[in-house]
Design brief:
The radius of gyration is 13 Å and the shape is globular. It has one helix and five strands; from the N terminus they run ββββαβ. Strands 1-5-2-3-4 form a five-stranded mixed sheet, with helices on one face. The chain is mainly beta.
Amino acid sequence: MDVIRLELGQRPSDGTDCIKIEELSDGRFALTGTALCQLSGEDADSVSLVETDYFNEMSEAEEAGIVWANAQGVQTLYVGYGTLAHPIERTDVDGPL
């Protein structure tokens, strides 16, 4: 699997297989991810990762996200990082429903 680490605060492009690691106010890190899984032919389904356990180190969150993406069959994984000073860029899609 190719792992492409984005610049701090950069948002992975829509439609890419990605994980996002974001620093929380208590210094821990949250992990989320999405992957597009090929079912058959042109049919595909997306799966999401919403980790409810938080990580003490950014590297721990990244490792867990890479393991998850590998289990989904991801070939190219984009990794976005956000800190309190440099959060990941948001879009209207990220807002509350």
